[in-house]
Automatic annotation (TrEMBL):
Gene3D superfamilies, per the entry: Peptidase S8/S53 domain
Taxonomy, superkingdom: Bacteria
Pfam families: Pro-kuma_activ (PF09286)
Sorted UniProt keywords: Calcium, Hydrolase, Metal-binding, Protease, Serine protease, Signal, Zymogen
GO annotation, biological process: proteolysis
InterPro entries linked: Peptidase_S8/S53_dom_sf, S53_propep, Sedolisin_dom, Tripeptidyl-peptidase_I
Signal peptide: 1-27
Location of the Peptidase S53 domain: 217-641
Protein name: Peptidase S53
Coiled coil residues, start to end: none
Top-level taxonomy: Bacteria, Pseudomonadati, Pseudomonadota, Gammaproteobacteria, Lysobacterales
Active-site residues annotated for this sequence: E290 (charge relay system), D294 (charge relay system), S560 (charge relay system)
Cofactor: Ca(2+)
Gene Ontology MF: a single term: serine-type endopeptidase activity
Length: 641
């Protein structure tokens, strides 16, 4: 489903392009950073050595068979040990890596999937082992310090064919949660706190149909109303016997979720949340509300499912390690994450200021995630990722594109890991509602639309005054990958697009002016994102309960809600069908291609709105994917084979 040759050519072209660019990485904190010299050599860090899979083409073919009715391996999912034996590293390859570590005073633990070796040691040991200086940098934007190699790693020749990536030597804070506040909430410098009575509206997660709530104050009960989940609840389908996993980079307060469910009158399974710490675990911080939302939404739609929360530090190898652990444990039937970063930031250590940095071809996180997702798929675990909240221009929220000298332009981009063809990318819509801002007139959105706040921008420009607000480019993430080729399941889908031409990532140096850092491939037949969408616009958004954000609040949205909602929905489908669902994508594209839209379809076509570039239209569009769900109809299709 992807082209190794394409990735090699792209990586090579990036190396040539970036060789002449001066240093200072654009990654987590995104803005330039200052090299302050050699890092603390005594600091102990965790490092993951990711090993290449074997027989990957056969693995991809087997995955397709697991979700193809009539195939001899239909729903014949593998165990972790089967996966390791068929596709993991060999004993000889593992011995070579272990010997290399031993020679450098290190030791490692082979993970159960034989895809990685976990080790720890001092920065001095790793610097010597891989023959690269490791320096401390300070972000010019946040003032946060981090460490990373200043040169490409040098590996022994016997390891170059088996070792895919060394993850953890760079601990830049890179991934962001995909959550947004409503415009009115932003204007008030924070979401409005809701009275406890607002949370007392009954949920319909047990078949109790209720009237639709208030836009901006929706609950999981409203999600059930919007997307026809209630017939499943009426049959006693509530997630019992299923397990969902959340992969996150912030710890959270369990009471947030339980208070949310109690507040909406939702009975849930008792003591069904388990935290699993990876690489020392994450901390309670300003993003902890993201994890609360993930648990509230997934567990609210599947209230009797077990919930595993894998949390790791938002630095270095934390994200991939946490996701890998969720897959190796293989307890979860379905996994979601609401964190990501622009796909193109994985291409290279893009440089904009000062010291030398030759590590310019790092796509290791993309490739590592891909291998993890392949394992999840062949084990029957469904995976979901938020597609982002910057519309078609995914770098904008990270880079502050185009606002002042020293900033960046805004190429059309997609988010990672949502752009990987082996994860289901969760996009966003706006459900019908009426709106008014400040002294302007009341306007309405009459049909569910691709979420993009250009409709609000246009409103302000016309009725309040141009320059009163800048909302570019808030909306549901979507577009065309320039790394992953178009997967087979999108070949026959009406509306699939190629990448746009003349897209570059450029930096506006205060002295030298605009500098081109990256030229993106034009007319590339890439994987299209998202796959499906649900309501995500904060203006038609949700109530959350988050201690770090002030308790019960409304006016929250983002594709961060959609990914865990799909997670919870999959737990219902797991119970309804009696088996794991597996990788969604080949199955849902087949259903849409064959059966289209209509009363008995599993999908609702989204033909209105846009995400600042891609407009809703008949069939697929890179704003809402193949559309929103009719969950009860989807359950019928999945359970009919």
């Amino acid at each position: 489903m992807h082209s190794t040759l394409h990735r090699k050519l792209l990586t090579a072209s990036l190396a040539v392009l970036l060789a002449s660019v001066s240093a200072g990485s654009i990654a987590a904190d995104i803005k330039p950073a200052v090299d302050t010299g050699t890092a603390n050599n005594a600091q102990v860090i965790n490092v993951t050595l990711v090993l290449r899979l074997h027989n990957q083409a056969q693995l991809e073919d087997y995955i397709q068979q697991t979700v193809t009715p009539g195939s001899p391996n239909y729903r014949n999912f593998l165990s972790v040990s089967d996966f390791a034996a068929k596709y993991g590293a060999t004993d000889a390859e593992i011995a070579q890596v272990q010997n290399f570590l031993k020679q450098n005073g290190l030791s490692g633990t082979v993970l159960g999937n034989r895809m990685a070796i976990s080790t720890s040691g001092t920065l001095a040991q790793f610097s010597a082992a891989f023959k690269t200086p490791i320096h401390t940098f300070v972000s010019k934007e946040s003032g946060r310090s981090f460490h990373r190699p200043t040169k490409s790693l040098i590996l022994p020749s016997q390891l170059t064919s088996s070792l895919l990536f060394v993850s953890g030597l760079n601990n830049e804070h890179r991934y962001a949660p995909h959550i947004v506040k409503s415009v009115n909430s932003q204007a008030a410098a924070g979401s409005k706190a809701l009275a406890n009575s607002t949370l007392s509206a009954p949920s319909n997660a047990n078949g109790n149909t209720t009237a639709t709530g208030v836009p901006g104050e929706y609950t999981v009960g409203d999600v059930a109303n919007f997307y026809n989940i209630n017939p499943l609840y009426a049959k006693g389908i509530n997630g019992k016997g299923s397990t969902v996993a959340i992969v996150t980079l912030s710890d959270f307060y369990v009471d947030d979720a339980t208070n949310y469910w109690t507040g909406i009158g939702l009975p849930t399974k008792l003591n069904h949340i388990t935290k699993i710490s990876v690489d020392g675990g994450a901390v309670i911080d300003g993003n902890s509300g993201e994890t609360s939302i993930d648990v509230e939404q997934s567990g609210g739609l599947a209230p009797f499912a077990d919930i595993l929360v894998y949390h790791a530090p938002n630095a270095g190898n934390g994200f991939t390690d946490a996701f890998m652990q969720a897959v190796i444990d293989n307890k979860a039937d379905t996994i979601s994450t609401s964190w990501g970063l622009p796909e193109i930031f994985n291409f290279a250590a893009l440089n904009v200021d000062g010291a030398s940095n030759t590590d310019t071809t790092d796509v290791g996180d993309l490739q590592t995630f891909h291998q993890i997702l392949l394992e999840a798929a062949v084990q029957g675990q469904s995976t979901f990722a938020a597609s982002g909240d910057s519309g078609a221009y995914d770098t904008v929220r990270d880079l502050g594109a185009g606002t002042a000298a020293g900033d960046f332009n805004a190429p059309l981009t997609v988010d990672s890991p949502a752009s990987d063809p082996y994860i289901t990318a969760a996009g966003g819509t706006t459900v019908p509602y009426s709106y008014a801002f400040r002294t302007g007139p009341t306007k309405s959105i009459d049909k569910e639309s691709v979420w993009g706040w250009d409709y609000i921008q246009n409103y302000f420009d016309k009725y309040v005054g141009k320059g009163a607000i800048n909302l570019f480019s808030v909306g549901g993430g979507g577009g065309v990958s320039v790394y992953w080729q178009q997967p087979a399941y999108q070949w026959f889908t009406n509306g699939i697009q190629r990448s746009e031409k003349k897209q570059t990532l450029s930096y506006n140096d205060p002295v030298a002016g605009w500098q081109t850092l990256l030229v993106l491939p034009g007319n590339f037949q890439g994987r299209n994102v998202p796959d499906v969408a649900l309501n995500a616009d904060p203006e038609t958004g949700y109530i959350i309960v988050s201690t770090v954000d002030g308790g019960a609040q409304g006016g929250w949205g983002g594709t961060s809600f959609v990914a865990p909602q799909l997670n919870g929905i999959t737990a219902l489908l797991r119970q309804s069908t009696g088996h794991r669902v597996g990788l969604w994508n080949p199955q849902i594209y087949f259903l849409q291609n064959v059966f289209g839209y209509g009363k008995y379809s599993a999908f609702n076509d989204i033909r209105n709105g846009d995400n600042w570039f891609y407009a809703g239209k008949n069939g697929y569009d890179p704003g809402a994917g193949i559309g929103t769900l009719n969950v009860s109809n989807l359950a019928v299709f999945l359970g009919s084979h």
